Amino acid sequence: MIDFNGVSCRYKREYAGEGALPVTALDDVSFHIPRGSFIALVGRNGSGKSTAARCMNALQLPSGGTVLVDGADTSDDEMVLTIRQKAGMVFQNPDNQLVSSVVEDDVAFGPENLGLHPDEIRKRVDRAMKAAGIYDRRLDSPDELSGGQKQRVAIAGVLAMEPECIIFDEATAMLDPAGRSAVMEMIRRLRERGTTVVLITHFMEEAAEADEILILKEGKILSRGTPAEIFAVPDLISEAGLDLPAAVKIRNLLRQRGADIPDRVLDIKSLAEWIAGNCPENVPG
User: Fold this and answer.
1) Euclidean distance between the first and final Cα of the chain, in Å?
2) Full set of structural domains in the chain with CATH
């Protein structure tokens, strides 16, 4: 679905004086995101992950190398609209994505700009609002909604355009735990529908649900692998300036005390299920 081939991105260093070297956000990065997969792109602040996200949607053009979205080069001006139809984007701050004073009008903004028939727009908008869980607020103003509800409106706006890929750029960063949980539940449903999902996040509990995790450090790929493979090397996580999910930390502590817990146990639910299944004497009833 998405191919990065030797991609580099550099920014001018502001206020640094004439002759200052540019800031390198991505440095000769290459990777492939298969269609229908769920990839988590992680790294500390300044690692280049948000720049990579913008490159996937042609919002940012590389200084070197190429980015292909379903075979289309993001540097081809004639393909930009097609690329943005195929790869939708959800940003960190929902307030920056809302354009209307009525929820359903906001969700309809994208499909209207695609020039779709009004009947098709109505179907898509209703379907997207129901999928995002904000149909009952369709006639309200976004200003009346919580941060999590606003993010649902933003996601519904992307869903209504029916992209083949959705990129979540720190989309849960400003949400409370309930809001993050709701967004992750929508991502799970998107996976079931076969939508390609790219999640840029610093919450490793979210990354644990991905098919693969790609770690960026200082604009380069530090490592890529399944969550089980990545979390099996704690030193690698520390090198990236990240932290293991709480469930993995607990799992590792239990292993040190002799518990034979498999690598696939990566979240609180699966950890609780393993403990319940393997310590029956401690479970009432």
Assistant:
1) 50
2) 37-61+75-231 (3.40.50.300), 245-285 (no CATH)
